[in-house]
Every structure is written in structure tokens, then in C-alpha cells.
# Entry
Amino acid sequence: MADDEETSEIQEKLNTSDTTEQQEPLDTSQLDQLMKADLEYMLEFETQIFLDIIHKDGLVVAAKGLNLDLILLNLFKVYSDPGNLVLVLNTTEAEETYYMSKINDSNMHKTTFNVNTTERVDSYLSGGVHFITTRILVVDLLKNRIPIDKITGFVVLRAHKVLESCQEAFALRLFRQSNKTGFIKAFSNSVQSFTMGYGQVERVMRALFVKELYIWPRFHSVVIQSLKEHEPQIIELHIPISENMSKIQTYILELMNITVKELKKINKTIELQEVTVENCLTKKFQKNLQMQLDCIWHQLSSKSRQLVADLKTLRHLIISMHYADPVSFYSTLSSYRSMEYAQTATWVLLEPAEMLFSQASSLIFTGDKELNPEFCPKWKFLLDVLKIEIPHEIQQLKTKENKIVILCADHKTCYQLNQLLTHGPYKYMFLNALDKKVTFKKLGDSFQKCGKLGDGESAPDPPKKAKLDKTTNGEDKKSEDEKPEECEGIKDSYVLTMSQSSSTEAKDEDEFVFEPLEEMENMNITQICQSIAAPTILIQTFKGTKGSMNLQRSLEEIQPTFIIMYHCNITAIREIEMYEAHRKPEAPLKVYFLMHGDTVEEQSYLTSMRREKEAFEYLIQTKSTMVVPEDQDGKSDLCLTLQRNLSSPTKNTRQGGRSEEGGRKYVIVDMREFRSDLPALIHRRGIDIEPVTITVGDYILTSDICVERKSLSDLVGSLNSGRLYQQCTQMFRYYARPMLLIEFDQNKPFSWQNQYMVSSDSSNFEIQKKLLLLTLHFPKLKIIWSPSPYASAQLFEELKDGKEEPNVEYAMAIGDNQDLDILETKYNSSIYDFVQKLPGINSKNIDAFLRQVKSMDSAIQKTEEELKEILGNMVDARLLYAALHNDHNPKELETKPKGQWARKRFAKKKS
Amino acid sequence: MLDESLNLAAEFDSELTPDDPTKKDDAEAQTSKQPSTKTHCLLVSPKQRGNPLLKSICNVPWEYDDIVPDYQMGKTTCALFLSLRYHNLNPDYIHERLKLLGKMYELRILLVQVDISDPHHILKNLTRICILADLTLVLAWSAEEAGKILETYKIYENKPADNIMERGESSPYIRLLQVLTSIKPINKTDAMNLIAKFTTLEGIIKASESQLSECPGLGPVKAKKLYTTLHEKFCRN
# Structure
């Protein structure tokens, strides 16, 4: 669409950079493998990406919506063979199930925490393609459970995330260190993430050990060509917004403008070029601004922080004006009109805000608080399209199964449209007003009529509808009367049928009746469509239906004849294009666009498109000037990134002479610590990692140094909960020199303040006070203040220097005699943590409780007696029962001491 | 700020240089001397005269006394004060002081005021010194904070550890908050809102995912996580 207006210059650059690469002929074994892939179904550009990546390792960056799953699928098909061992990182669950179901082969494996160690080893040895959780992989690589030299290669999805957490990079480094032949192929659909930060692309490529960068924007000539052949037929409906709405929009924009100016005025020294009203409207803005301000956040005045928060609020308002219905918008807006809010946020007191409030109330009230809300302008068009255009088309085409997909941005809108279509606009607004507790004196004229009509109808109607459905479906259906309670639920998607109503009492305008299909979740969509002759309407978000990985796939499943885009989104549009191009239809798909012309909605769509284009231009520019070292792929021994900072050889030999292990330096690391970056960084410094589940300490550096690592937020939590005190007691019991490592976030300033920006200084000092108290009680506890994991790793190395290595058996043996490793594999850890905290549950009875009760659902069914049986003692049972079933309210805090007093006094009297 | 610490530096110098010949004898005399037995107030070495942190000690009495460390907060607690800027200029100063201190006191604090922009390298070295010399490193980012820290040590001198130990008996409401916040994305505010909306834990467990997501502050993502965690089977298959 608008993507097509490409800059020819870039196009040229892009094409030349691709053609300079001379394609070497593939060797025969590769050709054999290629036979497995079905290239026919792929579009031209997909084929090219596929061949590129098969031929040479690299990083593929494609535009949003140009889904790479088909390429990946074929890639997996190629490698799905017992002779290969391919590891796939960063997949989502939906993707895994999709690929597994598509390939359906015993060579596809899925490895998560649920698979135990021996099974894992077996499955690695049997080869094939493995979808694996990175944290497990790292541990298995370190423990040599995977034959590293036998690994055929890695496929990394969402490659832009590689730097965020070190885990993937660590796994790849471990792999490259001992395997010089395997491949690494990486994919990403998020071009914008590569433009943040300095040299991001280069750093990602270095971390991935790839030398090639393949860029596939939407304006790439091959992409344009392959999508052009079969384009969907697009009908754009530019819908003007009502006068009231456009005024409201102006006021909000004005408020944003004032806020932005104010922010710039009081922060003259900070680079705030990015902060413009236009940018405020994009989704990423908040994230970007936060990132930019993070390092100086504690230096900002509280007013500037409030202004940043205000911008967010205003953005939310402008979006809800466009997306939500007027009644919801009004109620959202009114929630900001309170004394308390005005004390913190200044925008509410500005002049445009006053006008905004009055304008908003005229949106839904006429005269003296008479409820007469306007409708969303899109509703009329939507109903027109559904009731007039589409039936007309259907008659012309004479197709049998007609499926209409309505796409919108969020669940709330899905819900809104569902309610709208089932109840009609008047009744929906009325119900919504009641629901949101909007106060009004009387109903508007048209509403009175329709409200009554709606109310009157709703009583006799439901059974009729149900009957109607029964005749068409022949299936049991939940009675309509249950619906009102349930309709609050916001679901992912809705299915409606549109049938010509035969009831005579309905007026002409209600020619069509939209009926909800509740049982859709148990049914296949195609089944539904076969059973019903009338056109089916599906209301969905851009993300597609639940369980499918993206919109393109869910479209393939549904095969709609019409699509109505209720909101705009580039990704969704491209996915529709992709779907259409793959389908190669005779009759093109019809897509209706409902868009408010000349509004923020259109603007934010255009902005996001422009930003993506700029990001690609930047990437293409970077690629043309990028210097890639010959050894970046890590296949030769010279690769710099692979070199670990080993201590000088003379030192090594000396150590080798002393200890039998040949000077192997290692640190014992608790299994749970693999969530942090530190193990990877320690390993990089030339110290081996010994992953073990230990209960005392996180890192054991030498035979007597034991370190408990706390990030700042952990520190606060564990000081408050008392865990840290307990951990220190434990460490002192077993180690001579316990240490507390306080690790600050490297992206934030090295100080206390920034973490607690909302709290006042006094409460901030509370934590330090507790830390001081801790030192008073553990005078020999050493505190290490580290600004980043990098610094921690460096210090660890220095602390280890020349000291005796730690003892793995000792570390494993101490602590509770309960083996945590067993515990963790036996029970689901998140619910285990939850149960552990419940009153009445302690280390003695938790095992029995978990084994006998099975789940929280059954725990709440148990009587006090039954709990006593399980927990073995009345006191605990009573505590637990009370915690589950008693009312809790915060006032208890103040009243409780009194109550206790009274009870005590009472007890005394009694005695 | 700059002037102040330069003054401070000058003072340290003046303290150290003229006394130099006599210092050794002094040191010997002092190491044999036991920590001062005065306990009613915070003791400050005269060496610290003029240190701006003294101004912010206002909740406990303090007086100058002839002690080896800079501050004595209790019978077994002492502190040495070091400004990083000063340490940069006189890296040997702290070694001298440590030699003097020997093995006295049980809790030995090295109170470091971070007053330079890039403290990481120096801090790393100080951390190593602390580990070798058996000191506890405590950082302060301003003179006021440093003063407050010393003050707190004096106030907490005989305080039991109850405050930082696991509280067995707290109000059931707080306990419930703790229980709920043990589920990853749920923070304290969310937990309070949840309890306010559903009143009992039973209510929260019985609530549907969409009902949960309507609780203020809980988006669909958090609601989903909460819901799946609560309804997870305890045992893995």
C-alpha cells in the first residue's frame, strides 16, 4: 500500500548489495536435503531468503508482518533428521505447537523444565530438531550433557533480544568454543530494535557469530513483486469524526502540546528532540522516553516525572476516544476529574482541560443531563458494510460459505463490537452507561423508545433465538439468560452469525440479526461454517485467534471472504497481503478499511510506517559501511570474542604444579542463578562454571568464600521478608567468609535513589537502616557493592586469585537435607512458592499438603477437619482455613490491636 | 561541596604531617588501649573535626574523644570515614589508619562517601581492602546520608534483629499480601486491589480470568499469569 512509494536510491543500494554476493553452487548433500523442502508454496522472496540462509549463516531482518514461519518451517523440514542435531532458541509455545503439528515427525523435540535430565540426554543423542528453553540449554552445555561437537547448528528466533539477556549469547558462545563447524542462523521481525543504542546491529551480529546481514523491508523489489501478483481488493472508507470528537481531539492535542513544551522548558539540558506531539502518539514512545530518561531519572524534578506520566495519560485518553465508545470514554475521562488527581497532575487544571470535560459531557448528554450519547462514527459504516454491501456482494458472487472477519486492535474493542452487533447500538450504550455508573437524569427520546423496546424485547426474545439456533445447529446451546453475567468476560475472539430475521415484529432497519455462537471454543471454525448457511462473522484482534501463532495463520485457517479492518495496523495489513499472495486466489479477497481521515488515528498509522522505513534505511546504511572481521563467525581459533580472559600462562603453570586439577578455576553457581547475566560473564573471564543446586549462597568462589547475590529490588524484598537474615545465618553456619553482593543495574545510575522514585527520601532510608541492622548482627559479613554484573565478575576473579578451589560435594551436601532439585522437578515451582507462603504451611507439612490436595481449587473445597487430617495439626489447619475463607480488609490493620486487647481483657475477666 | 572536601583534605593533612614523628608512639599506646568505655553517646575522633557529616547527626548526642577509629558507635562498633575524592589524592591514608586500628572492635565499618563521578575502579580496590582487613564497606552518597548512617548505628546499638527476621505473627491481611505477591507479576498494589475486590482468597481463586482482569491495575497479561498459576496442578506429571 503506502509502502510502495519507495525511495529508488535505497532500492538500488539494496539490490546491489544482494547481487554482489556470488552464489556458489550448493554441494550435493545439501541439494539432497533441499529436496525435502517444498519450495513451490513459497513466494519468490521467501524462496530467496530460504536459499540465502541455507547457503550461508546470517541474520535475517524482515519487515513486520512479513512472517518468516514458512521459511523456518522448511528449514526445520530440511534438518529434521536423526543425523542432525539442531537447537532452536526463543520460540513461543504457539510457534512450537505449530511447527510440531506441521512436520509431525519423531525428530521434532520440545525441551522444557518438565523433561528430566536423563530423558534430555537421550533426546539430544537421538538428534533431530529441538525447541529448547535457553536456561536449560546453558546448564546442559556446561554440564556436558549435550555432545557439543555433534551439534549441527542453531536457529535463533527474535534475534534482536539476544543482547537483552545474556543467556542466548552465552549458549552460542559455549557452542562456538568447542564446535567450529556448526551453523548459526538468526531471524528477526523487529527492525526498530536494531536502531536503538550504539552499534546495536554490529553487537547483535557479534553475539550471534554471524557475518552476513540479510535485510528484507517491504519496499524490497522482490517483495513488492511477489506480493503484487495477488493483491487483495481494498476499499478504503474515510469516515469523518463528529464535531464533538474532533473538538475533543483538538483539546487533548493541545494539552499534550502544553505538556511537551513544559517538559522541554524545565529540562533544557536534556536532549528531548524525540519528544514531539507526533511521537507521543506512537506506541513505542513511552518505552523510548523511559529508556532515554532512565539514567538521569533521579535527577529529574518530581514535576518533570509527573509530566512524563501525564503524557502517557493523555495518550491513553486520545486512544480511548477513538477506540472506545463515547460512554466508556466519558467514564474514563471523569475518573481523572477528581481533587486527588488534580493535586498531582497539573493538566487537569488547564483551560483546555475544562473545555475537554464539558465537550465530553456534551458527547453523551443533551440538555439537562439527558442521556443521549453519540455513537462511534464507525458503527454506522460498519453496520452499513455488514448489512448492505456484503449481502450485495454475496448475491453477486453466489459463494456459499461466507466468512467475514472483523479485525480490531484490542480485546476491549472486540467485546464492544460483539455487544454492539448483538444488542444494537441503543441498548448497548444504555447497558454500558448503567454498567459504568454514569449518572443521568433521564433518557433521550430516541433512547427511551429503543431502551424500552430493547428491554421489552429482551424478555420474550431469548427463547426464540435459542430455538432458532437449535433448529439450525441441532446443538445444545447455553440459554441466553445466563449470558448477562457472562458477557463481562472479554474473550479473544467472537463468532456471530448473521441471518435474515424472519420475525415480523422487527422493524425494517433490523433486517439482520446477529447471533452469538457460544460454543465456538469447542468447535472448529470450519465445522461451524458448514453447519450454518448464513454468513459467519468473526471478531478478532490483530494477533489472530488463540492458539495460532499469528494473523496470517489464523486467516489461513478461517479463509474469510471479507475482511473489515476496524482499526489500522501495518503488521495486520501486511499479513493480509501475505495471506492473499499465498492463496493465489481467482477472486480477490475484499478488504474494507474503516479509518477516520485526518485524525490522530491516521497520523499514528502513518508515523509508525515512517518510523519503520527510517529504521530500514538506517540498517541498510549501516550494512553498507559495516566492517565485519574475517573471524567473527568464530570458526577459527583467532576469534576475539571467543577468547576468554585467561590469566597469563606462567601463572597457569604455577597453579598447575600446585593442584592436581591442572589449575582449572571454577565457581559453583546455584542453578537458580542462571536467570541472571553473571554466570555468563564469569565464564567469559576464563573461569569455569559448575552449575549445581545449592541451598546456601548463590556463588561459592573458594573453599571459604560464599556469596549471596542480591539485585537492588531483591535486597529490598528479602530484607523486608526476613529471608536475607535467614540466608546470612545459613552462610555463617557453613562458610568462613560469607559475602553479600549488592548488584546495581548497569543501565541505571549507581545509587539508591533511582529505584524508588515514587517514594520519599525517608522511606528510602528505611532499607539502608535495615541493612545497617543486618551488619550489626552479622559483623563479619562483607558487603560488596557492584555497579554491574561485569564488575561483579571481575571482582570474583580477583577474589579467587591464588585461593583454593571450592568443594562441589560440600556445597551440595550442606543446607537442608531436603534436596531442592528433586522438589523443583516434582512440583510446579510457581505454585510451590505460593503455597509455601500460606499461613499454616511449613516445611514439615508442605509435602503432604501438595501431594494430597493436588491444586488450589480443591484446597478451597476442604473443610477444616479435612485440612487437619492433611496437615496433621489443628493450629495449622485453622490458620490455613482462615487464610482461605475469611474476609480480609485493610482496616483490620488498625482495628486488630484493639481487638486483641479486648480479647485479652476479656480472657482475664473470664479467668 | 568541592571546597568542603578540600578543606577536609587539608585538615587531614595537617593532622597527619605535624604529628608524624610522635604518631608511632601514639599508635602503640593506642593499640594497647582498649576501646573507650563511654557508651552514652557517639564518640568522634578529634581528627574528624569539621567534617560536614557531623552537622546531620542530630538525634544522638556526640562528643570528641581520643579514640583510634574516626567514630565509635558502640562498645564493639567503630567506623572509619573515607571520602573517595580524598582517597584519590592520598591513597595511602587508609592503609595507615588500618594499621593503627589493628584488630580492635568487632564490627568495623568503612564508611565511604561516594563523591566522585566514576567510583567503580576505586570501589573495587576498597572492597578488596575491606575483605582483607576485615572491614564492612558501607556507602553513602552525601554527607547527610553518612551522618544518618552513623546516627542509626548508635541508635541501633542494642536493637534486636526482629525487624529483619521473618515475622511469624503478623496480621493475616499482610500475610495474604505476601502470599499473593509471591506470584511473579503481582505487586503489592495489585494484591491489595484483588483482596478489596474479592474479599477472600477463596474468591480470588474462584474468579474467572476475565473477572480478574477487570480488577484495577491488572491487565489481561497479569490476570492470565495469576489465573494459570492459581489453577496449576501442584505436581508435575
In short: The two ends of chain B are 64 Å apart (CA to CA). Chain B touches chain A through 71 residues (CB under 8 Å). The longest helix of chain B spans residues 2-32. Residues 8-32 of chain B have pLDDT under 50 and may be disordered.
